[in-house]
Amino acid sequence: MPRRQVTVDVPGLVRIITRELPFMRIALVCYTLALLLPVSMAAQGADSASALVGLHGVIVVPRGAPPVDTSEIRTLAELTLRTAGITVVTDMSERTDRDAIGILVVGLDCLPVQEPSYAYMMDARLYQLARLVRPSKMAPSTFGTWEAGGSFGVVGSAGKLREVARDEVRAMVEKFANAYLASNPKK
Question: Which of 24, 27, 30, 8 shows the shortest CA–CA distance to 120?
Answer without folding.
Answer: 30
